[in-house]
Amino acid sequence: MSKEIGKVLGTADAQPLDFWIAVPAAEPLQLDDVVLVRRTLSGGHEVTLYGIVDILVARHEGAKLESDVFLATDGVLPLTHAVKAHVSVTRVDPEIFVPPLPGEPVYKAADGDRDKALFFDAMTKPFPLGLSRDGEPVHGNFEFLDGSRGAHVNISGISGVATKTTYATFLLYGIFHSKLLGAAAGNTHALIFNVKGEDLLFLDKPNKALRADQEALYAKLGLQPGAFEDLAIYAPVRRETLEMVPDTGSRTEGVIPFAWTVKQFCEERLLRFLFTEAEDDSSQLGSVVERVEARLARARDDIRGIDGFDGLVEYIQEHLDDWAGSYASGTRSAFERRLLSAAARVAHLIRGHTDDGERNVINWRKAQVTVIDIHNLHDRAKRFVIGVVLKRMFEDKEKAGTSRPLAFVVLDELNKYAPREGWSPIKDVILDMAERGRSLGVILIGAEQTASQIERRVVANSSFRVVGRLDLAEAQQHEYAFLPGPSRARAGILKPGTVIVSQPEIPIPLLVRFPFPSWATRESEARTAAAAGKDPFRKFRS
User: Fold this and answer.
1) Which of 26, 262, 277, 510 has the fewest CB neighbours in a 10 Å radius?
2) CATH architecture of 152-258+356-464+518-525
3) Nearest-angstrom CA–CA distance, 78 and 61
4) DSSP state for residue 494 in the 8-state scheme
5) Quick one: pLDDT at residue 325?
6) Tens digits of per-residue pLDDT, 190-232?
7) What angle do CA 538, 523, 254 make, to 5 degrees?
8) Which secondary structure element, helix H or strand E, spans residue 344, and what is its range?
9) Residue 200 backbone phi and psi in degrees, to 5
10) Residue from 381, 383, 376 nearest 247 by CA
């Protein structure tokens, strides 16, 4: 039942979309509380205005000088405390936009009133975003994520503090482990690129550090705490051996090494993903790359005997003048320099043969959740892997000709792969995903430290905008205009495990807390620890 917490203030203008309320000093009203006020119109029509408290102000009433506070404390001046709260309106029901009248009672919204205020009652497909500050569930409308009415999530925040990847995996856990997907859950997939550390290699292990009070938070969200049960893990092959051994440290059990053959590299036209630094749009280098790719795709007989990427580089160098003789020598030299530079970073991933060509190709449909560990790779190699895998996923979805089942892609450090300036093949793939992924059922959950450095169209096409702890200077950039002034200020002091979420149906961004992960994020948290000390190639790692 809704409880009265104050009255509409009479000394400040009340408007249809925002108003002030006077609050008793003893009333524990806080920021983010959801409130409502009713106004009766002529004819008996009642209008309800729902809103969220976004500013709270306390002062001495009757004080004229700053020093009056000391006199009031000593009992010399009979001053009283006055508290007022600003409310931003989220919903008007029915939609008759009139201001509330001074003196009208204001109630704290609860149960069905709270659901109405936040549009939860209108969500036919709600999914868990987390918990409000007072511990109540916060939902998102899945229709704005599954492509029906919108798609994609963008998460911004300071590295190591904003817990961007943790929140992305929490969103996936809530989607897969609620009843949201129904019978489609078994065919829905997620692809996660592990770009930092080996934290995501233990998603299938329960977290032994999870406390009972955290388990209760999952229960509030309608979730059973646990781990990701259907998980496949891929890691690049070791560079110091010809054997197909995954290059991981803390976990080797259950990890599939990946690589590409020279044949796959040529036939699938993957050369472009070795040239992933952002180029000026007027550069002729991309045209040279396309021409060489086309020649390699036709040179099936010649490449059959090439054993490894170094041999392929030599073959390209021998024929480059014939294939690209019409281009300036400087352009050909730039192509050759970059090819040789890439060879030093990527050669071990492209081999003359593999033990099992199909087994060692990344199959994003192999499990419900697939983790691709690339954190040990050089940045150039990371870009290559991401570009090639996303290209194949997009092609697979286009061939399927349907947006169902859905495929989620979690990618951190978007600023490296889709920067605001310049063009590159991988940026082209990510931009295509942001703009056409909705129609194909490919949903991007992207994260970065600074949204101001990301290609604008990637961010603009994200229905859900999430911010964790932000640098205050970054928070003033235009990309965060969806945050009201108080929310921008709060973003600078957010703690780990707390984010601000904006979604289309709710006009005010919501502060959301999400539970401690119930899946392990490192080896020490795994109940069944990964084997340690049994890696015969550990001595080669330094």
Assistant:
1) 26
2) 3-Layer(aba) Sandwich (3.40)
3) 9
4) P
5) 87
6) 999 999 888 899 999 999 999 999 999 999 999 999 999 999 9
7) 65
8) helix 329-346
9) -85, 5
10) 376
DSSP symbol at 158? -
CA nearest to 156, candidates 470, 488, 503: 470
The residues spanned by each domain of the chain are 3-117, 152-258+356-464+518-525, 265-353
> 522 phi and psi, to 5 degrees?
-160, 165
Q: Which CATH class is domain 3-117?
A: mainly beta
Output the furthest CA–CA distance in the chain (Å, rounded): 99
- Pair of tokens at residue 416: 């490296």
The string of pLDDT tens digits covering residues 90-148 is 999 999 999 999 999 999 999 999 999 999 999 999 999 999 998 999 999 999 999 99
Inter-residue contact 335 to 285 (CB < 8 Å):
yes
Q: Which of 104, 96, 128 is nearest to 37 (CA)?
A: 104
- The pLDDT tens digits of the residues spanning 390-408 come to 999 999 999 988 889 999 9
Strand residue runs (E) in 163-221: 189-194
Pairing of strands 350-351, 260-261: parallel
Identity of the residue numbered 379? D
DSSP characters over 345-414: HHGGGEES--SSTTTTS--TTSSSEEEEE-TTS-HHHHHHHHHHHHHHHHHHHHHHTS--S-EEEEES-H
Distance CA 364, CA 393 (A): 7
Alpha helices in 100-178 (DSSP H): 111-117, 164-177
Strand-strand pairing, 46-61 and 34-40: antiparallel
DSSP at 462: -
Locus of tokens 């065919």: 187
Q: What's the CA gap between 78 and 68, in Å, rounded?
A: 10
Inter-residue contact 532 to 524 (CB < 8 Å): no
| Pick from 235, 190, 182: nearest CA to 537 | 235
Chunked mean pLDDT (size 10), the chain, 542 residues: 89 96 91 96 92 94 91 90 95 96 96 96 95 94 96 92 89 95 92 91 94 94 95 91 80 90 92 76 78 91 84 93 90 92 91 66 92 94 95 92 93 92 88 94 96 93 96 92 90 93 94 95 72 39 36
